[in-house]
Amino acid sequence: MRVAIPVHPVDEKLPLPRLIPLAVQHVLVMYAGAVAVPLIVGRALRLSPEDVAFLISADLFACGLATLVQCYGVAWSGIRLPVMMGVTFASLGPILSMAAAPEVGLLGIFGSVIAAGIFGILVAPFVSRLLPFFPPVVTGTIILVIGISLMRVGINWAGGGQPTMTRMVDGAPGAFPNPNYGQLQGLGIALFVLVTILCLLKWGQGFVKNVAVLLGIVAGSVLAASLGLMHFEKVGTAGWFDVVMPFHFGVPQFHLIPIVTMCIVMVVVMIESLGMFLALGEMTGKRITQDDLTRGLRADGVGTFLGGIFNTFPYTSFSQNVGLVGVTGVRSRWVTVAGGVIMLILGLLPKMAALVEAVPQVVLGGAGLVMFGMVAATGARILTAVDFKTNSGNLFVVAVSVGFGMIPLVAPSFFKNLPHDLHPLMESGILLAAIVAVVLNAFFNGLESAEEAAAKAASAAATADHA
What we know:
Subcellular location: Cell membrane
Transmembrane segments: 20-41, 53-74, 106-126, 133-155, 184-204, 211-232, 252-280, 334-356, 362-383, 395-415, 430-447
Largest sheet: 2 strands, antiparallel
Distance between the termini: 48 Å
Membrane topology: Multi-pass membrane protein
Structural class: mainly alpha
Low-confidence stretches: 168-173
Order of helices and strands: HHEHHHEEHHHHHHEHHHHHHHH
Number of helices: 19
Strand content: under 5%
Main location: membrane
Number of domains: 1
Pfam families: Xan_ur_permease (PF00860)
Radius of gyration: 22 Å
Strand order of the largest sheet: 1-4
């Protein structure tokens, strides 16, 4: 008589009537964050609405691919835990700096993403050894600076774009005040979205509370459409089905400084993923080995490499979906496998991307204040696990690192006299904060053992996801 081998809850295959709603929930929880980066980058580069819609489709498609690699797994990649992959906000600051450099542009961004993906694949077995360089005081500071840096984007969205706009006058570009910036109607819509989200977070229950940001955007879009501020012509002309082709915008270009910058971002992202994997292992009751961590980190590299090929950006495990595992108690990775398939399908529906692109900036602004503020709050929560009372050196690590991170925000021309090739690196407050935090932590605190660092990373990630 055969003895049935018990299946771990992570590998349990759920019936379709239960599997599909749970997968849709994972997609909805991450959807607003997933489409935010291509929206921001596309509008920063002043791409046409059609091109922005394509970036969104490409992002959704690549999200699905990266998720399947991570949670379904291939021979040498994927941690096979309930993980949803999405574009990391940590890459947004450097990407926007590259977008502002005419010699880099979109093709240079894609080239740096491809190179960073290859770099991530190669260094995955060694990244866990870097964990002692990134204790909670460092990762919390970096994530805090990411959120603060992104708030500028959310605030300008709420205002209706950039305060100034560029127009050609007599063949030369000139800067002029944006007449639509700060108009009361737009500010009112942004406030309405913000209040709607906050009300749903306070009084919503379960699933409604989990998708409060998405519901706030939908409510704001309905209000904007009723006021004649949201237009659907592009949605009507968009096709029902299209294939996301690699290298849609042309052959990627490779520039040294952007590549180095993106590789540094990749290391930061992989360290963050390491903490999330360890926390997820504790949440699901699955023992995580060194080989598992290597496979998971390698999947971050594979996802980023695929992102560059399919016209999008670096990928990482989304922390809100890790938190959802804790909230629902559903540990099966097949739920996120189904979620990855749904993301693939959404990426092949241009009408969906065109609808997202049609959402006015003021609507996104109200949601952006919440989304980007939550990134900063996550960093602050991680820092609550740091000993500031008996170790004053940690205070200086945070204080000086945040100060360096603010330089590009408050004084954009601070580094103007440095060599031009260094500008994409020095104009990223996130990378400045990361470098300074690592150096100061080593100076004040030295380096812990890998085991101590892993325990602290798991504790900090669990705190961030459950708080």
